[in-house]
Description:
Elements: H1 16-24, H2 26-47, E1 52-62, E2 74-84, H3 89-157, H4 163-198
Helix pairs in contact: 1-3, 2-3, 3-4
Amino acid sequence: ILHDLTYRPNEYRIPEIYRIAAGNRLEIRQASISVDQAMALVKSAQADLLPSVSVQAQGSRLNDAWSPFDPEAVNNWLLQGVLTWSFDMFRRRDTVNERRTSQARAFVDRQLLVEQIMEEVKIAYVAMKRSESDIQDSRKAVEFRRESFRINQERYKEQVATYTEVLDAQRQLALAEGDYYISLIGYWINKAVLERRMGTLRQ
């Protein structure tokens, strides 16, 4: 293992991990875009229910002189307005209702996705905290086994303990150190899993 296995306390806390996940998970961003698109489609469908109004203005001026201020000139102004309203109201209302249903579905899908992601973040956080606690327990076990090994060495020098007892103490120390490094590896793995769940660690 080439990675640095030095233990460093994690900086993640609840509810900060949920905020980080909400801002970094691509799935949540995509779901929010889908909701925005569904809302835009609803507004577009609602706009079809409004009447269409058009105004047209036309003017003309007849004069036998070049002066634009000649009072004898003839003015002819025409203003036309057209109001149109399609009468397929039922079909368009059905379209609006369908778009609203799609919007509601997109919103619910996003909520379910957010809940699922937050649950994944919570599970990963609990696993990381558990492995971090294992590190403390393993460290205490190493200190205990190291002291036991030292005591057995001293007892062996004073011919109070046997060489087998020293070897057994050494074996117990080696096992405790192995458990400590296993807990360290588990901690770093679980921390990486948490960062993946929060969206801060990409593949």
